[in-house]
Design brief:
With 404 residues, the protein is an alpha+beta fold. It is built from 12 helices and 12 strands. It has helices at residues 33-37, 47-71, 106-110, 113-126, 140-157, 185-202, 219-231, 251-261, 265-275, 298-316, 335-351, 388-402, and strands at residues 2-7, 25-30, 165-171, 177-182, 236-241, 279-281, 284-286, 320-324, 327-332, 363-365, 375-377, 384-386. Helix 4 (113-126) packs across helix 6 (185-202) and helix 8 runs antiparallel to helix 9 (265-275). The two termini are 21 Å apart.
Length: 404
């Protein structure tokens, strides 16, 4: 018998001076086949298992060779390089203060061999289902081996056309459904390659209060920062819920913002094509006039681009806040201050960002009465605990998995 400790959501304790954490754990006892057979020193895997492993190893090597052949033509990359040999990057500045130059070659960076290999590996590790063309992640290397030169030429000439995304609905924990748009695996790889290039240029300019979908930052840090604000005496929280944020991003505003930061017109056309690619639902393709469909690698970066304007406004006003994607909490010292901030920021979001605040789910309350990323806090902020609803969902998931 082997004991395995499960901690909800993977959010382990982030040590902070003077703060402690209450964690709820669930211990599941399960039989371990390796532990049982480990007592027999002469045990060897069966021949069928050895053959299966050899076959899997050969399949992995075949995919790797196909990728090397597909991207092998790109050893002579056009991306500008520094005298030291690395890719030329800009000095990290606030995004709003560093408009793009006219000599950008972003698409050459996107098509670089190492960048494309990294993108493929990330898409493969994420797994995911096929798009409207039915191609799986395992089939992608063979397809790239045959078609990559043409795809690369389309990307560099600005003529690449992504396919519509496949509409998928998944249930929300609190009821309702969340709509996802699943791109084809090829489009996911291209989006990932684009995201990698743009993220390394822009990430340093995002707000230090933003923690979602950023390298080196996570929900751990967001929860710990919120706890710090509460412990410092900010005992009221303005909990803002953006209604269907990913479905209601204004395309015109987003593209206008991107045009001020990106000089490479091919990149702008490519991003615009992804936004306007359309959605296939029940066999029919419909147009898309707003939103950045969840399901593609580029969507989280674009969401941070849109909400960076909100971050800068909150910083300009001197607020203490934490944002993780579209979850934003502002911490204040009194209920009256919270109500005033909520009215003002709601107006800014509506008028300036063209987004909606869900009044039914937003509130000014004590932190102990609200949850943030699955956690709630004590009134003085000295402790944080898993929110009751999160525990209920976790237990339901464990019970369901036992019968599958």
């Amino acid at each position: 018998m082997k004991a395995v400790e499960l901690t909800w959501g993977g959010l382990s304790h982030v040590p902070e001076p003077g703060l402690s954490v209450e964690r709820s754990t669930l211990t599941v006892r399960q039989k371990s086949a390796a532990g049982i057979v480990g007592r027999y020193g002469n045990w060897r895997p069966k021949r069928q298992e050895v053959v299966s492993r050899q076959r899997d190893s050969m399949s992995g090597k075949r995919q790797k060779n196909q990728l090397q052949l597909a991207f092998g033509e790109e050893g002579r990359s056009e991306a500008p390089r520094t005298p030291g040999g690395g890719i030329e990057t800009r000095t990290a500045k606030r995004i709003s203060e560093s408009p793009a130059g006219n000599d950008e070659q972003l698409m050459e960076e996107v098509c670089e061999r190492e960048n494309c290999l990294r993108a493929y590996k990330r898409v493969k590790s994420n797994k995911g289902s096929a798009g409207i063309d039915g191609m799986t992640v395992d089939q992608l290397p063979g397809y790239l081996k045959e078609h990559w030169p043409a795809i690369r030429e389309q990307l560099l000439s600005g003529t690449y056309k992504p396919q519509p995304v496949r509409r998928v609905e998944i249930p929300k924990p609190d009821g309702g459904v969340r709509q996802l748009g699943i791109p084809t695996v090829l489009d996911r790889m291209v989006q990932q390659a684009v995201m990698q290039v743009l993220q390394r240029r822009w990430d340093a300019g995002f707000s230090e209060h933003s923690h979602g979908f950023r390298p080196g930052r996570s929900a751990h840090h967001a929860v710990a920062k919120a706890q710090q604000y509460i412990a410092a005496g900010r005992g009221w929280v303005v909990d803002l819920d953006l209604e269907k944020f990913f479905d209601r991003v204004n395309h015109d505003r987003l593209m206008k913002w991107l045009a001020l930061r990106i000089a490479d017109k091919r990149m702008l056309r490519l991003i615009g094509s992804f936004l306007k690619a359309g959605v296939m639902e029940n066999g029919l393709v419909g147009p898309v006039d707003e939103g950045t469909p969840q399901g593609g690698p580029l969507s989280p970066l674009l969401s941070n681009v849109v909400l960076d304007e909100l971050d800068r406004e909150l910083e300009r006003r001197g607020h203490c806040f934490v944002r993780y994607a579209d979850d934003c909490n502002i911490y204040v010292r009194s209920k009256h201050a919270g109500q005033r901030v909520k009215r003002s920021i709601t107006g800014f979001i509506t008028r300036r960002l063209k987004l909606r605040v869900n009044e039914q789910k937003s509130a000014v309350a004590r932190p102990v009465e609200r949850k943030f990323l699955g956690f709630s806090f004590t009134a003085n902020g000295q402790k944080r605990r898993i929110a009751p609803k999160a525990i209920v969902r976790f237990k339901r998931k464990v019970r369901t998995s036992r019968f599958q």
